[in-house]
């Protein structure tokens, strides 16, 4: 607690109890005769200061939380309450001020808020992953139980590889090249040429794109260019528009004459579900005498692009 003299210039402190001295780290001779503003510092809110000044000018009670500083420079959150003390004639004599250290309370509240945000984020990510797994289970070919189980297993493993990569990077953005290499290398370690700028995919986009890349690589290995000894992949990417998404070009070369399939395969269905349904993008396929060309466009915000070295 402190008492300031409202009748003297700059309202100096005329009384400070031991608790105030203990809280701030000052000795009594360093406090008495000074205005309380010495507790303010670089991060003290000017709005809180203005609220205090207005209350003093109006000679009314003021309650405000303000960031103050101890003698050693340490910050503390101060719940300050000021009350005017008037004489019998109604004139202002003193201001009584009480301070409560709210630092620990603020820390606990911030921790609770952080934990809540973390739980909400985990819940959101879990729902995204489960939605993708649900698509895998529903869209995989269930005609043969053994093949069905294997297809789901490999697709979930592809999803897990992307999940592990995100976990290693603390769920920040992942480069397109890194994600392409992660999913394509198991099928075309030496038969894929990659090119494109350093584009970062935001975390929510990574897992669906990873599954799409897995499906395309599996299809190329089973039915496309990678079946032929001379077959190879050319995978390139570029920004769709500055900061608005990704354009990817998947080209299978050296597969020989490729006919457009008469019906959609399950891999095609999954690619469509991930790109068009979940990511609201677009997929276009072109068949030629030399192979298959797939052009993918994915809209999203928060992309970042840099030059590769």
What does it look like?
The chain is of the alpha+beta class. It folds into two domains: 2-101, Beta-Lactamase; 107-306, Histidine kinase-like ATPase, C-terminal domain (Heat Shock Protein 90, 2-Layer Sandwich). Helix content is 42%, strand content 27%. The chain has eight helices and 13 strands. It has helices spanning 18-24, 28-31, 46-58, 103-139, 145-168, 176-188, 203-222, 266-278; strands spanning 2-5, 13-16, 62-69, 75-86, 92-101, 174-175, 192-195, 198-201, 232-239, 245-253, 282-287, 292-299, 304-306. Strands 2-1-5-4-3 form a five-stranded antiparallel β-sheet, with helices on both faces. A five-stranded mixed β-sheet has the order 7-9-10-12-11, with helices on one face. Strand 1 and strand 2 form a beta hairpin. Helix 7 runs antiparallel to helix 8. The chain is rod-shaped, with a radius of gyration of 33 Å. The mean pLDDT is 83.
> Using DSSP, what is the number of strands?
13
Unreliable stretches: none
Task: Report the CATH superfamily of the largest domain.
Answer: Histidine kinase-like ATPase, C-terminal domain
CATH structural class of the largest domain: Alpha Beta
Any idea what the CATH architecture of the largest domain is? 2-Layer Sandwich
Return the domain count. 2
Estimated helix fraction: 40-55%
What is the distance, rounded to the nearest whole angstrom, between the alpha carbons of the first and last residues? 62 Å
**Oligomeric state:** single chain
Order of helices and strands: EEHHHEEEHHEHEEHEEHEEE
The largest β sheet comes out as:
5 strands, antiparallel
**What do the pLDDT scores average to?**
83
